[in-house]
Amino acid sequence: MQLDFHQVDAFSRQPFGGNPAIVYRLDAWLSDALMQQIAAEHNLSETAFLLPENDGYRLRWFTPKTEVPLCGHATLASAHVLWTEGFLDQGREARFHTKSGLLRVRKDGDWIRMDFPSRPASACPPPKDLEPSLGVPVLWVGHNGGQYLAQIDSERALRDLRPDFGRMGTFLGPELDGVIVTCRSEDPAYDFVSRFFAPALGIPEDPVTGVAHCCLGPFWKERLGKDAMTAYQASERGGVVQVRCDKDRVLLGGQAVTVMRCELQ
Known about the structure:
alpha+beta, globular
């Protein structure tokens, strides 16, 4: 077996920033077990597998531990590979058939625009170990059925977070698998900042998370009174996400760069 793959840094305009993803364009499906083994071998937050289907591609995403129903940065990386490697004309929309429905992605100059479902959070009582796991007071807590969303009061506190993943594991599981932490940005270039932790998925901290912004967009739209926002995910690698809320959709914008072209033997 020999398979070509690309490693792409998504939500970054230069190598070694943003969130790295592996992209495989397949001619036939591999077994689920093999795709999971490959994702575990790469040990990045997401490995994407693409197979041509009808007017687009079937797209699946795997973390080192499990398959997930939606992923932003690996979708961005997949579209980037299709355009840059000549599988899709630059002017054509990339169409991905996924477990979360049809996802449409288009090029806009140096930016890539993704049309994703909105995933707003509803207020809920905080899990008793949430604040102890973060080590900071929490102003507001909600969930969207997939992740908890926690608002805190300062960007410095957000950047200094050193979560206790053992305690975080007491309230995360198959249903609610991650914690998004957010606050207003102190930098006028951005509207809000965030970090995302998903130890239940084998991802202690995800560098830049498109799906988290499907939750953050509606949250900050309500508080800032803005449909279009620019966000920064303040992980060690960091990345910029443009966010626009449109009814039950969130349009996410990012950049990407290929850093490796390789073969799996």
